[in-house]
Structures are given as structure tokens and as C-alpha cells.
Amino acid sequence: MTAELVRGQNHPLTQARLEVRVSAGKPIVAAATLSDENGKIRGVEWVAHPGAPTLPGLEVSRQAAADHRLAVDLDAMPEAVHRVSVLLALPVGVGGPARFGAVAAPFLAVTGLDGTEVASYTITGLEAESAVVALELYRRQGAWKVRAVGQGYAGGLAELFTDQDLAEAQQLATGINEAVAQGVARSVQAPQARTADGDRSRQATAPAHGPDHTGSVPRTASGHAAPDAASAYPAQGAQSGPSAGPADPSAGPQPSAPTAGGSIDYSHPGRHTAAPPPPPPTAPPAQPGRPAQPVAGDATGWSMDERLYNQVWGMFEDLARSTAAYRSAVDFADSRMEKELDQVLSDPRSRIGGQGDAAREAARAKHTQLVDQARQALDRDLAQLGAEADVVEPALPPAYARWDNPVWHAYRVPMEIPMAVRLGDLYLPESDPLRIPMLVRLPLERGLWIDSGRVGMLDETFADAHDLRRLGMETAVALAARLLAVYPAGEFTVHVIDPAGSAAQQLVPLVQNGVLAGPPALGAAGVSDVLARLTQRVDLVQMAMRGGAADSLPHDLDTAEQLLIVNDFPHGFDDRAVNQLRYLADEGPAVGVHLMMIADREEAAGYGPLLDPLWRSLLRLTPVPDDHLADPWVGHAWTYEPALVPPHSQVLNQVLAQVAQARREWKR
């Protein structure tokens, strides 16, 4: 049961991975601060805000919006952190309300990964305040609790940060407001309420978490999407219920008109108190004795892209759970047969003769029966997932689709950054040929390493190291082209380091279409020049963010997301260049500089353990199928297949030509 908190009340938290959902009716800014056991914020690096949305165990939204989802992983919090404060503020300089008294009462809900609310709080009594400390999650004697705070500040974020003894309060508040102003053009309002005949969101028998390798948003067991402090996916099933009436049930209670002698409902009509609306019930009715037909977008979400995203990872979780059940049943059958055979052998009277043979035959027959039953259940689930994949795959937007999807033929450069991007496909040995798209949230939170070595690779046709390096570079070009295609014009920049010029042929699509920041860097001098420029960019942006002086950045600084492709590492790298590369891998993602390496770890073995942190910080991908990606909650070793362009296809050049044209128009 949800605990409806009032100001000052607390409630215990029994789950570590949580989501804080915020609804306010009008666009607001969501932020959060970390503080130690004395309640002190140790610096601006302990503040998550739209300009720096990610901290260990915490992620907030990058823009102002009427609805927010903050992802919290309490287990991932540094040991020094004892309190997480959720802050809300009205954006400055964008023409919106200047005080909370003019907007709907903000509503916050703390939910678990199964989609159920743990605690909720409506902040009432706000008038002139423009910033408020809404909730705090705090650690007490090794356990975490949530407390409703509701402390407002008429002076906005600057006064709030000053009250929390943050020395750079004014600069930080200014930086947050500037970051919000820059991103407000891409803010997406929640859709209008719609009639819902029932909740068709996917539901699970038990909550489950998805694989860390995705970096993607958790989707809860009830089908609700959750941002990605860690990754999780939902499960399958159909849920139906009675109609909620003509209004969207997520929109909260509706006010009634006052009548003579009647009571007045003071609830605010603009406040949403629940998850995004379920998808419209478009599925055809199920035939008696047959499962319901799958429908693309059959998951909750504010947009079709979000629904498809949630549905894809719901399929992932369904496949993981079904396979885990099958493997568990087979293990049980094996252990049961071994136990029964041991009992037969332990009795001297049944070791020989017909009695012993009959007992052994009965044990083996029972084993076969149990395995066959488990396989039938798995085949049934795989058939359902296969049918769902058949309708979902053609409906995917370009960011989620394979290169052979017809959606690319209608491609147009987007105006907004999508939720995620497809890096390849995942499958398990029992599920072949079923493939689940591997979606990773944007912007990337870690770099990518395309392993051109032969360790663990399943495709033995690529025995030559040169062929693996070539295919690795083709994989890198396909991924870089996809990233360029899904970002708006001018918001993604790609640099290439190719010291020996060995990837000239694979780089032709990027070079000829003019989508690179410059020609591929050659030789040691080229390596040094590119690394120096990107390292300087990281330093400048970090200093500006920490000092709250984003407007003081050089006018010629490229503020777009940056991707550095490094081919044939460590050729052309000296010790200084290696240290710069490690620095970019560690510090770059937080300020929009990402790394993609094509390398064989064995070739860099001469550096010894110096490069171990680098390999660990990157997401390892492979140019050929390899079963190396593991999810932590079930433990499956998933086979990864890269997202390559079909042979002789011109789709890559067609897409890049449109990207180049959009860039030229954007620069005018």
C-alpha cells in the first residue's frame, strides 16, 4: 500500500533501485543533491542537474518538463553520501510561471522497479516560492528512508543552494538556468488525456532487472519505463480491467461543479498522479483458447517511441525469464535422475538383474518426460515472442531499427534526440533465431570497444586478424553513421584517428559524404593533435560547469556531442597519448565526449595493467557473434551480433547524404 506522506513524515524504503516521478502540470526543473552525514554538500560535483544529469546512483532529466522521472540506485551511492535531496524549480527566462502558487501542486511518487508506489507526496501551501526541496532519501543506521520536506525558497535555486551552504550557489543556479534555456526548445509536453478502456500494459509475475551492459532505462514489471541509473526490462502478459470512464485515469480526480448544498472538490485538475497512459486497446480480441495477438507499441509510455522501447526490453526480460525457467527445469531433471540412479546403485540387491535395469530405465524416462515438458513450455513462449517480434520489428523508428528495415528509406534528419539507439542484437542458444534489439540510452554513458581480437568469438570463418580488424572498422562506421543519423543536425560530431591509414576503405562513406569533423588523423602527429583538442575541450567544459560559467566558454567551441573513433590502437600512441586516451574515457562522457575504439587487447599487452581501467570502462562489442554480454539478475551469457549494413546496400550512403545536407542547411 502506498504511504501518502505529509510534510515532515518519513517512510522506510525496502528497495535500493527506485524511481521518483514528478508531476506538476507545467514545465519545471528537476535536480538533486547529495550530502554527507552532516548534511553538507561537498561541492557542485555533488549536484545532479540538467547541465550534469548523472551522478553515481542518480540521474535526473536534462530539460524542463511537466513530468519527470528521476532514477535512484541507493546501492550505487558513494559511502560518504547519507542523503539525497530532490529539488524542484521553475525555469527562469523561458516565459513560464514565476512562482509555484501559479501552477498545479507538485506531486511526487517514489516507486519500485515493479511499478508500485512506495510513497507519495503532494507539495501544498506553496505561493511565492520558485524552488523547493521536495523529498529527501536519507540513510539512518544502515537503512534508507524517504521524508517529505516541502521547503520552499522565494529566491529560487540560488537561495536554495545558499541555504545548503554551497559556496558556488549563484554560479550553479545560473548554469542550471542556462542549460534549461538551451534545451527548452526540445521539451516535450505530456500528451492530452485520452479515453482508456483498460490497462493493456505488460505485467510480470515478479520484478526483474535488466542487463548492466545496456545502460538503458529500466522498464518495470507493469510495463512502466524507468530511467537508467541501471538497466532493467519488463515482462510479458496482458492485463485488462474495467473502463475508467471518459477521462484518463492517470490525470487524477476531476473537479466537480459546486451545487446548492453540495461539496466542492478542491483537487487540482492539472495534476497527474500516476504513470503514463496505457496504449490504446488496438489489439484484436483473442479467440477462445488462443493467446491475444501481439501489437506493436503494447506498453506504457508518453509516445510511440517510448512504448516500443519499453516493449522491446519487455521482450528481452520475457526471453530471459523463460530461458531461466527452462534451464532450471533441466537442471532439476538432471539432479533428480542422478539421485534416483545413486539410490539404485547404493542398494546391492538392485545393482544387477532386472530390478536394477528397470529402476534405471524408469529414472531416465522420468528425466526425458520432465525435459520434454520444459521444452514445450519454452517453445510456447518462444512462439509468442516470435510473433511479437514479427510485428514490433517493422514498426521500430530508425534509431531502433536494423539497417535492412524499410523505415530507413523514408529517413529524415530528426529534430529531437531519441531515447535510445540500437547497437546490435541479442539472443540465447535456446532462442535462435529469435533476436532482441540491444538498445542503449542516449547520450552514451560509457565508451565503446569493438574487440578485433579472437578471444571467445563464435564465428570461426574470420580466422585472419586482418579480416577481423577490417570487420571491426566496418562495425564502427555503421555505429557512427547510426549515431549521426539519430541526432539533430549539428548536435553530433565525429573525429577519427587512423594512424597507419589502414581503414581508408572502410571510412569512405563517412569521408565522401563530409560528415566528419575533419580528415582522419594520420601518424603520431595526428594522434597528438586530435587528443590534445578533445582533452582541452573536456577541461574547459568541466571548469565551466564547476564554476557555473557556461557563457564564458570560447565562442568557437563545438558544444555538440563528440565521438572519437580510434582505429588500430595502440599503433601511433606514445605514453602521453595513452594517458590522454584514458582521461577521455574516464572524464569525457560526463561532458559529451565519447570514445569508440577498434583494438585487440593482446596487441596492447605491452602496457601491462596500465590499460586495465581503460578496458573496464568501455562497453565491449564484437564484429562477429560472441556470447560475452551477461545480465546480472539471471546470469545468462547473451550472444551479441553487431548491427552491420547488408552487403551491397546503399542505405548507409543515402542516410549520410541527408545528414550532410541537413548540416549544410543548419550552418547557413
> Gap between N and C termini, in Å?
57 Å
> How much is the average pLDDT?
81
From the helix content, strand content and strand pairing, which structural class follows?
alpha+beta
Helix content: 25-40%
Number of strands: 21
Main sheet specs:
12 strands, mixed
Your description of this structure?
By secondary structure, the protein is an alpha+beta fold. It has 10 helices and 21 strands. Strands 1, 2, 3, 4, 5, 6, 7, 8, 9, 10, 11 and 12 form a 12-stranded mixed sheet that branches. Strands 16-17-18-15-19 form a 5-stranded parallel sheet, with helices on both faces. A hairpin with a 2-residue loop joins strand 11 and strand 12. Helix 1 packs antiparallel against helix 2, helix 3 packs antiparallel against helix 4 and helix 5 crosses helix 10. The protein is globular, with a radius of gyration of 27 Å. About 13% of the residues have low confidence.
Give the gist of this structure:
The protein has about 675 residues and is an alpha+beta fold.
Jot down its keywords.
668 residues, alpha+beta, 12-stranded mixed sheet, 5-stranded parallel sheet, globular
Summarize the helices and strands and which ones pair or pack.
Blueprint: E1 3-5, E2 10-12, E3 17-35, E4 47-48, E5 54-55, E6 58-59, E7 65-73, E8 83-89, E9 107-111, E10 117-122, E11 131-140, E12 143-153, H1 156-163, H2 169-183, H3 304-346, H4 354-392, E13 420-427, E14 436-441, E15 448-451, H5 465-486, E16 492-497, H6 508-512, H7 523-547, E17 561-569, H8 575-587, E18 593-599, H9 612-617, E19 619-621, E20 626-630, E21 637-642, H10 651-667
Parallel strand pairs: 1-10, 15-18, 15-19, 16-17, 17-18
Antiparallel strand pairs: 2-12, 3-4, 3-7, 3-8, 3-9, 5-6, 6-7, 8-11, 9-10, 11-12, 13-14, 13-21, 20-21
